[in-house]
Write a structure and sequence with these properties.
Layout lengths: L22 H31 L6 H24 L9 H35 L1 H7 L2 H22 L1 H5 L17 H37 L2 H7 L7 H29 L12 H21 L1 H11 L15
Helix pairs in contact: 1-2, 1-10, 1-11, 2-3, 2-5, 2-10, 3-4, 3-5, 3-7, 3-9, 7-8, 7-9, 9-10
């Protein structure tokens, strides 16, 4: 094997070999992924600053969007590490490989957990509008978000215990960054990170869809509208939020399902980033799409972007600005 084909030419006996990819294709991939990574981190940082700075945006639903934006922001940063594996070589060592993969698992798990909480939030808001303001408070949402992140850390620490104890244990050569999960841990992770959350999200949003359609028909029927007053009529703002977040959830499912379907099919027991680049990058790309959805559906986000870009948020009392 020629030295130019090795990740570490000085370690000819133990070095991994580079993937034979045309130079033009590699450079194009670097440019595209760099753009997506920067755009993902930048847009989600705007969401984080907007919701954190403007007090009028401190609503229970927006706190969930803040949690989702934090996880998406880290995904944008992790994409830089994913780019290092385009040619099949990892140059940062086994410890950094383990930390990168471990952090990616935690962020993904937290994103899925946040999506479940968002679905519960919309379910209560649409199906039980009279109880929403009393049951869904900022403190309860903050507690749920913190519990979601802590649970993700604990759960992934247990699932990835073997990899954390011995970084690089699954690497077959120097320059490889691979995580191998045993069958039991993989089954548990698949169940609690994909099957159960996705099932809950689909069931809750199907119920939200049914109620939303019923409410829309009730508006056109005075008799039905009167009969619904006893149970409470959903506000237009809540229905609009449910529709917007429904788009976010659907896009999330479309981006996440291919990755877990590949794992569920058992085609590979290891998550080698170079061999599964498409489904992994699709997961990363979802984090870029969420803020773009907010731009189209949330006027307050467009207004906050303008205030941030023009540095008006640096003015005294800017946090009290009317955003809604």
């Amino acid at each position: 094997m020629e030295e130019s084909e090795l990740c570490f030419p000085q370690l000819s006996n133990s070095s991994c070999s580079r993937l034979q990819i045309p130079h033009t294709e590699v450079m194009l991939s670097y440019v595209v992924l760099s753009f997506i990574s920067a755009l993902t981190a930048g847009l989600n940082l705007l969401v984080i600053v907007s919701i954190s700075h403007f007090r009028q945006l401190h609503t229970p639903t927006n706190l969930l969007l803040l949690s989702l934006a934090v996880s998406d922001f880290f995904v944008g940063l992790f994409l830089f590490f994913q780019m290092m594996l385009l040619d099949g070589c990892w140059f940062l060592g086994d410890l950094m490989c383990t930390l990168y993969q471990y952090s990616a698992y935690i962020v993904t798990s937290a994103s899925i957990g946040t999506m479940v909480i968002i679905s519960v939030d919309r379910y209560v808001a649409v199906c039980y509008p009279l109880r929403y303001s009393s049951q869904v408070t900022q403190n309860r949402v903050k507690m749920c978000v913190c519990l979601c992140w802590v649970s993700s850390v604990v759960f992934q620490s247990l699932i990835l215990k073997d990899n954390l104890d011995r970084p690089g244990r699954s690497n077959s050569c120097v320059g490889e960054c691979v995580f191998v999960i045993n069958y039991v841990a993989g089954f548990v992770d698949m169940t609690f990170s994909f099957i159960l959350p996705i099932s809950v999200i689909i069931v809750l949003y199907f119920r939200v869809f049914v109620v939303a359609v019923t409410q829309a028909r009730a508006v056109r029927s005075s008799i039905a509208a009167v009969s619904l007053q006893g149970s409470g009529t959903v506000k237009k703002s809540e229905l609009k939020a449910a529709r917007t977040l429904g788009v976010v959830v659907v896009v999330f499912l479309l981006c996440m399902c291919p990755f877990y379907c590949v794992a569920l099919a058992g085609q590979s027991d290891s998550l080698n980033a170079s061999s599964a680049s498409f489904v992994i990058c699709l997961v990363y790309f979802n984090s870029c799409l969420n803020p773009i959805i907010y731009v189209f559906f949330y006027p307050w986000f467009r207004k906050s972007i303008k205030l941030i870009v023009t540095l008006q948020i640096l003015q005294p009392g800017s946090c009290q600005a009317i955003m809604l």
